Amino acid sequence: MPKMRAVDAAVLVLEKEGIDTAFGVPGAAINPFYSAMKKSGGISHVLARHVEGASHMAEGYTRAEPGNIGVCIGTSGPAGTDMITGLYSAQADSIPILAITGQAPRARLYKEDFQAVDIESIAKPVTKWAVTVREPALVPRVFQQAFHLMRSGRPGPVLVDLPIDVQLAEIEFDIDTYEPLPVYKPKATRVQIEKALTMLNDAEKPLIVSGGGVLNAAAEDLLVQFAETLGVPVIPTLMSWGAIPDDHPLMAGMCGLQTSHRYGNATMLASDFVLGIGNRWANRHTGSVEVYTKGRKFVHVDIEPTQIGRVFGPDLGIVSDAKAALELFVEVAKEWKAAGKLKDRSAWVTDCQQRKRTMQRKTHFDNVPMKPQRVYEEMNQAFDRDTCFVTTIGLSQIAGA
């Protein structure tokens, strides 16, 4: 069995799991990890100016392309605490990122040693798993488990804390026999999908609410195909913005405080049935839950079992990965359409489109300094439909939506 430093084994595992880019700031307690990356040569490192920035870079990298997992690296103590905001952001939005921190030697833990912060305890509330590795031989297996957890079920971040003596210890490890663990994602059954579609088909004014889980599962095309097969309008949450093009005839707008689409809110209130896929019913989307739920039935599809019923109890809950559910939804919907079982939704769609045309927010302000609404109006006129832009949070973001 080949012998190597535990940190060299860790880097080999990262490469075998598909990692080729990392973001971070070097420091004494994590420098062995950096030396292992340099020695192996398979991971490109982006030097951040602040470790919190590295954690947000890692999140952005994951979001940029399906299958990516962003990695952020920092030294002991404040590097880990600086990552907490990025880890919380990733956890809240179900984004897998891997945070790697250095740590004081094991013998110096809990002895007021320099920067020997108990980052394992601090990070646990904002990660799927946070662990300080105390046995060198466990290092490659901890990283193997980290990737398994990040990819399985509801995706999310993991923090691995490496005491410097653990990094430097010699272990036996053969990367040629290493294989990533199988990924677990729950899948809806046909019976569940048929029940949900029956409820939708019985409704007069149904809507599909698309959540961030649709984007995380790279299921945007399936969502649009499903909506088009049924002829049912879609309201994306802010996390799902872009899952259906803004100019698509079935894009009914967004609702809630964070978007302030008058037409989206009006369409939601006019509906009598909502199928939520990969969404959380967050309060910035729902507003008053009593108003949001009154007079309509709900089906909720989510990869996380404890998300169903957390905000309110749906009429039907289905635990499933969004892509797996949408594949079945499309299959059954096409069968029902071919058999003539689906209702004609053209009148309902026309109503939604009418609201979208006539219930626009005011954007043409002549104020000086210029209001955010006018800035976005000018941007929309100057740039094409595929231009992406980033806003700050608050009123500026609301105007941008």
UniProtKB/TrEMBL annotation:
| Entry annotated with the keyword Ligase | yes
Lineage, top ranks: Bacteria, Pseudomonadati, Pseudomonadota, Betaproteobacteria, Burkholderiales
Gene Ontology molecular function, alphabetical: flavin adenine dinucleotide binding; ligase activity; magnesium ion binding; tartronate-semialdehyde synthase activity; thiamine pyrophosphate binding
Q: Which Pfam families match?
A: TPP_enzyme_M, TPP_enzyme_N
* Annotated ranges, domain Thiamine pyrophosphate enzyme N-terminal TPP-binding: 4-120
- What is stated as this protein's family in its record? Belongs to the TPP enzyme family.
The EC number(s) this enzyme carries: 4.1.1.47
Which intervals hold domain Thiamine pyrophosphate enzyme central? 193-327
Keyword vocabulary terms for this entry: Ligase, Lyase
Q: What GO CC annotations are associated with the protein?
A: acetolactate synthase complex
> What GO terms in the biological process aspect are recorded for it?
glyoxylate catabolic process; isoleucine biosynthetic process; L-valine biosynthetic process
Task: Please give the name of this protein.
Answer: Glyoxylate carboligase
